[in-house]
Amino acid sequence: MADAAKGVRQLVLVHGRAAARQMVEPQDRPLVDIAGEVLGDDSNRKGFSYSGLCLTSLPHRRLPDDAPWERTVGPLTLIVEPGRIKLGDGPARMMGVPYGARARLILIYLQTQAVLTNSREVNLGRSMRAWMGRMGLSVGGETAAALREQARRIATCTMRFTWQAESKAGAQAIGPTMMSNERIIKSGLFFHDSGKGDARQETLFEDRVLLDNDFFEQLRRHPVPLRDAAIQRLKDSSTALDIYVWLAFRLHHLERHTPIGWKDLYQQFGAGYQHLWRWKPRFLEALAEAVSAYPEARVDIEDSHIVLHPSPPPVPKLAKG
After folding, report:
1. Can you tell which superkingdom this protein's organism belongs to (predicted)?
2. Do 214 and 159 fall into the same domain?
3. Which of 81, 108, 247, 318 would give a disulfide with 68, using CB separation of 3.0 to 4.6 Å?
4. What DSSP state is assigned to residue 3?
5. Nearest residue to 71 via CA among 222, 269, 262
């Protein structure tokens, strides 16, 4: 499936999406749909992510509520510690660290709005509802509950990035040797009591939040542009989202082809899998999805490694918002 993604872009460009679907195996048609949606999108809408979050990532699955999360990729380490929140009349409880695709989407929205408006203050009202609508997410039912849960975790957790080795490329692309912020969100939450006397009727997206100043400054200096259409197509897969933002950061910084072994990829993306051989097929599926959503990406797959090639960024100009 991963190899099939290499030719999907050309098939869609030459023959169109409908014809391309008939020219590939049935199991590869979802890749044609992803590439077709991205290549056919002319809205030019952008998303953004801080470069440090493109190299590291949150957990894919729920951890014990009192468990911290730590992920190291090369010299960069992300540490996330859970926080407490008081809900109703009961005692404050540990929320746990954010996880999964929904947490990633919330963070992408916050970062995107902060970059586009050049402001730490992010609106969670109508604009977030519109964005979630474009992503194909309902703001009611189970989706709202999942978003609310991840919002609480993001609002209460603490996050730290540390950069252990000094290098010109790292300093330019990531930021300072250490960035430490108390919380991603300095003040404000995504939800509040609706005033109807029932805590379960909390509503999403009606307030503004203030991002932590350290986080905002590093995001403003080191934003990585993403395509809205790509995020929409990958919205249900935390692994595919992680690979997409990683490629969006890495590929246009490369000066030559770069092989990366499976053990290194497993260390970076294999959280939750006890064995590399169990993880590898899922990674290849997610890689194919990510490459289909990033048609400019040049990635080869070999027996012992993958090879990244210098590629244009998914959004042509980095600094234009």
Report:
1. Bacteria
2. yes
3. 81
4. T
5. 269
Considering 107-111, 136-140, 239-243, 315-319, the range whose residues carry the highest mean pLDDT is: 239-243
Look at the chain and report how many structural domains it folds into.
Answer: 2
Same domain, 6 and 144: no
Is the pLDDT confidence value at 117 over 80?
yes
Flag the least confident range among 64-78, 97-111, 168-182. 168-182
pLDDT on residue 163: 79
- Here the tokens at position 256 are 């030559």
Q: How far is CA 308 from CA 44, 232, 257, 313, in A?
A: 25, 24, 6, 13
103 three-state secondary structure: helix
Token digits of residue 47: 């998303």
76-81 and 69-73 strand pairing: antiparallel
State the pLDDT confidence band at 307, using cuts at 50, 70 and 90.
very high
Structural domain of 35? 1-40
Together in a domain, 13 and 105: no
- Place 202 in a pLDDT band, splitting at 50, 70 and 90: very low
Q: Where does the pLDDT of residue 285 fall: very low under 50, low under 70, confident under 90, or very high at 90 and above?
A: very high
Asked whether residue 30 is domain-assigned, the answer is: yes
Structure-token match 């540990």, residue found: 94
State how far the Cα of 290 lies from the Cα of 35, in Å rounded to an integer: 10
Q: Which residue has the higher pLDDT, 15 or 28?
A: 28
Q: Specify whether 85 is located in the same domain as 36.
A: no
| Residue 254, Ramachandran bin (φ over 0: left; ψ between -120 and 50: alpha; else beta) | beta
What is the residue type of 74? G
Residue 314 lies in a domain: no
Contacts of residue 240, defined as CB under 8 A and 6 or more positions apart, other chains included, come to 234, 286, 287, 289, 290, 293
Q: Give per-residue pLDDT as tens, 68-97.
A: 999 988 888 899 999 988 777 778 889 899
For residues 59 and 97, the answer to whether their CB atoms sit within 8 Å is yes
The residue type at 281: P
Task: Tell whether 19 is covered by a domain.
Answer: yes
Q: Is the residue at 315 inside a domain?
A: no
